[in-house]
Amino acid sequence: PVFAGMNGSAIENFSCVIYNIFLMNCTWQAGRDAPADTQYFLYWQKSRDEEEIECELYIKDENCRNMGCIFQNVTIGIEKAYFLVNGSSRDSLIHFYDEYIDLYKIEKLMPPSNITVSCDGIKNDCTIQWQRPQISHSDKDMCFKYLINIKYK
């Protein structure tokens, strides 16, 4: 199929990250050859059964061009989510960009909580305990790996 739109007008470097359990931040860069008045709009669909919704909170650059979006109350489903960024310009047609993303792969985990250390000077040993971080995509205990860095002072 022939896609309408000027070459080099679609966004570039699209990426999203989920953080603080339920926030998602997506960013992109304007197409290299996009006209100066191009404005971009992000739509996403969490699964095939759900409505496609437009970003409600855009991140803008100094020219008031949408360059990203912050989503709140995001939960991770089992299907890949669909993202679409299209653009409009007075002068020309703008290529759209779309991508399917597994949301669990872009979640930045919180640190473990309730970390406690208790040491026994006589036995010369210490016990370190913690609770696993909260995650967006499941309440199950997943297979977490932890890296413990102990510095002696």
UniProtKB/TrEMBL annotation:
Sorted alphabetically, the Gene Ontology cellular component annotations on this record are: external side of plasma membrane
Tell me where in this chain the Type I cytokine receptor cytokine-binding domain is found: 13-106
List the Gene Ontology MF annotations in alphabetical order.
cytokine receptor activity
Q: How does this protein sit in the membrane?
A: Single-pass type I membrane protein
Q: Which UniProt keywords apply?
A: Glycoprotein, Membrane, Receptor, Signal, Transmembrane, Transmembrane helix
SUPFAM superfamilies named in the record: Fibronectin type III
Q: Where in the cell is it found?
A: Membrane
Alphabetized Gene3D superfamilies for the sequence: Immunoglobulins
Extract the InterPro entries matched here.
FN3_sf, Ig-like_fold, Short_hematopoietin_rcpt_2_CS, TypeI_recpt_CBD
Q: Which Pfam families match?
A: IL6Ra-bind
Range of residues in the leader sequence: none
- Per its record, how is this protein called by name? CSF2R factor
Q: Which organism is it from?
A: Drymodes brunneopygia
